[in-house]
Amino acid sequence: DQQVKQNSPSLSVQEGRISILNCDYTNSMFDYFLWYKKYPAEGPTFLISISSIKDKNEDGRFTVFLNKSAKHLSLHIVPSQPGDSAVYFCAASAVTSGTYKYIFGTGTRLKVLA
Amino acid sequence: NAGVTQTPKFRILKIGQSMTLQCTQDMNHNYMYWYRQDPGMGLKLIYYSVGAGITDKGEVPNGYNVSRSTTEDFPLRLELAAPSQTSVYFCASSYSTGLNQFFGPGTRLTVL
Predict the structure, then answer these.
(1) Are B75 and B88 in contact (CB under 8 A)?
(2) For an engineered disulfide with B93, which of A24, A93, A112, B25 has Cβ 3.0 to 4.6 Å away?
(3) A4 Cβ partners below 8 Å, 6+ apart?
(4) With an 8 Å Cβ cutoff, are A95 and B48 in contact?
């Protein structure tokens, strides 16, 4: 049972345009969400996070939106750059026995075309 | 400051062999984690540790063991390798729970 879903395996966007990556979750207990970026042959690197008490968080070109009623979050990248081409994972967590354990989605491969 | 380092980068094992995947972090993080990533799938938590001497199971612990004798090191042990353990293994660390995790570069393991 996939608690965190990224239904688009891949996305292509022109350089300078907006990239929107989506993530849906099923567990209403999730209260903290992260986005990671992963290049080939490297480990994931942290991009941006959002707590369930917020509906938006911004960091430079990256903005994450959270819609709790729809159990949906999205990552917006504006403007998209060729260096943004990577696999993006969303992860969600809830505290269990005092520890956050993250459930990762399957990832979306973003290709930014020059 | 090397961050999270993992060795080896690649390994091929025969069914039934054992091995230890090494993970070291130099950021003085309390929390450490082991994940596996199968092709086309997300990362799944195998084991985690909240500090030296304390470990706990994650989502997919069967076939693995861990130990945490120091803050820096968190080795993952496979006792009887099986083809189902063919995967890429990532070690990660964080200063506290709930904070973003720093990942190592991964170990690609193939069991034949």
Answers:
(1) no
(2) B25
(3) A23, A24, A25, A26, A90, A91, A92, A103, A104, A105, B42
(4) no
Evaluate whether A97 touches B44 at the Cβ level (below 8 Å): no
Strand partners, B44: B36
Q: How many CA atoms lie within 13 A of B103 on its CB side?
A: 23
- Give B35→chain A minimum CA distance, Å: 10
The predicted structure's pLDDT at residue B8: 97
Coil, strand or helix: which one is B9? coil
Q: So what's the pLDDT on residue B58?
A: 92
Q: Phi and psi for B85 in degrees, rounded to 5?
A: -90, 5
CB contact under 8 A, A103 and B104: no
Q: Please, what sign has the CA dihedral across residues B8, B60, B110, A87?
A: negative
In Å, how far from its chain's centre is CA B85?
Answer: 12
Mean pLDDT of B22-32: 95
Model confidence at B74, pLDDT cuts 50, 70, 90, reads: very high
The residue written with tokens 């395996």 in the block is A9
